[in-house]
Q: What sequence folds into this?
């Protein structure tokens, strides 16, 4: 049986392979393992149509165990993380599939610090999920309560407004909220810097989250930034834990470039703990060279922001993140937060007086191509001799300066292929070739 928990919680197509019965069982398992009578949990959701269904199922499960559930409603994932860690809660559950399409949903469990669970605790929860009906339920007079607690969001907003007040700018910026939960607060927080803020894609209808907008489709924002004559644009994903930036010309500045900008600024001010930047195995080799040339060090981890955070903790680092736009700035937050990342970029621009394009030019990137290939048998790629031979051929053609990475997605039924090297045409050719072979062999 495949593991329920991936790199970012439990995910699947809502009401197809991720059913409310599983959310109910997770509610019972979380109440039993992480809470217990007298210790409440908190539940938030993004803007997907299926969010209410899953939140209701979690409530039913947890309250049947005698645990109160505080419902905060639609919130960014980093907001639920902050609320869970700052309050009285034994755990938090976020109902979100982040950057995935609206038909998907997910269940992310946080501990009482607002952090994602260690894998051993996830394994324990998984075993409890399969046996949830055997857990001892509360008597009728000791059932938990469902408590609507929308005011909890103010804890997060007030903290982020405090961060925003430390930066003063008159820039004109555009923020794309991906029709997701970031639209609840992003515009207000960014405007607290003094910036002129225009908000796009903030009309969620339950089905349009991440649809042609947001961090996974920043082209729409890029066009708007250029057309409106804005200084900068920020694209959040559906639950606002990622951010992709756009410069004044409409050029996209991805997570690697943003990390490079922030790391170079902190190195120059001697504010990068241990000179360390923690990134995933997918991060661009150009970022590595730039940081090391400036006197810093790069530490690589597996893909997933939980592994980035673990790497930061182990190595005493204060900054880490991924090409996808997850950025963790430990002095402010223990999770990726697109709004905090935007504030940090604005702070660097304000402090240096330089444009985003000028700052990003300091971080030249190697040609890199990534492909996501739907795959019914995504975990079988390593044992496939045809795929392995194709990878070896690609590595030989790239030479010692190139890289090929193939891995199963932790959030989708797909294989991800990354090719990096010095020649753009060759990198694209090899990425297409490997994607075609993987698609043929794994479906």
A:
């Amino acid at each position: 049986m495949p593991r329920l928990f991936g790199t970012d919680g439990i995910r699947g197509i809502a009401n197809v392979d991720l059913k409310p019965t599983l959310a109910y069982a997770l509610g019972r398992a979380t109440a039993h393992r992480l809470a217990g009578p007298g210790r409440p949990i908190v539940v938030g959701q993004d803007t997907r149509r299926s969010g209410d269904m899953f939140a209701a199922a979690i409530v039913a499960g947890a309250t049947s165990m005698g645990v109160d559930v505080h419902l905060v409603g639609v919130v960014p994932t980093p907001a639920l993380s902050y609320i869970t860690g700052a309050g009285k809660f034994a755990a938090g559950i976020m109902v979100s599939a982040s950057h995935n399409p609206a038909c998907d949903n997910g269940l992310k469990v946080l501990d009482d610090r607002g952090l994602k669970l260690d894998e051993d605790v996830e394994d324990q929860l998984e075993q409890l999920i399969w046996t949830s009906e055997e857990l001892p339920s509360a008597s009728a007079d000791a059932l938990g309560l469902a408590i609507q607690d929308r005011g909890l969001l103010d804890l997060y907003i007030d903290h982020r407004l405090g961060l925003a007040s430390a930066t003063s700018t008159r820039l004109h910026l555009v923020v794309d909220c991906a029709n997701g939960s970031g639209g609840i607060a992003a515009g207000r927080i960014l405007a607290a810097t003094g910036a002129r803020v225009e908000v796009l894609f903030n009309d969620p209808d339950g089905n349009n989250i991440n649809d042609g907008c947001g961090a996974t489709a920043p082209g729409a924002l890029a066009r708007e930034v250029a057309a409106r004559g804005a200084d900068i644009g920020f694209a959040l994903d559906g639950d606002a834990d990622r951010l992709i930036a756009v410069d004044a010309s409409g050029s996209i500045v991805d997570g690697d470039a943003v990390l490079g900008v922030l790391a170079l600024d902190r190195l120059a001010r001697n504010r990068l703990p241990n000179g360390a930047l923690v990134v995933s195995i997918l991060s661009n080799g150009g970022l590595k060279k730039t940081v090391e040339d400036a006197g810093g060090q790069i530490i690589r981890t597996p893909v997933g922001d939980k592994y980035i955070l673990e790497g930061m903790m182990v190595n005493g680092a204060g900054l880490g993140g991924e090409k996808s736009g997850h950025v963790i700035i430990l002095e402010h937050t223990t999770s990726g937060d697109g709004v905090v990342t935007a504030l940090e970029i604005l702070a660097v621009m304000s402090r240096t007086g330089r444009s985003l394009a000028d700052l990003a030019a300091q971080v030249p990137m190697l040609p890199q191509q990534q492909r996501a290939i739907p795959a019914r048998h995504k975990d079988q790629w390593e044992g496939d001799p045809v795929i392995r031979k194709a990878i070896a051929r690609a590595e030989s053609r790239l030479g010692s300066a190139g890289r090929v990475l193939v891995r199963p997605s932790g959030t989708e039924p797909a294989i991800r292929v990354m090719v990096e090297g010095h020649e753009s045409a060759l990198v694209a050719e090899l990425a297409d070739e490997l994607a075609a072979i993987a698609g043929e062999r794994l479906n």
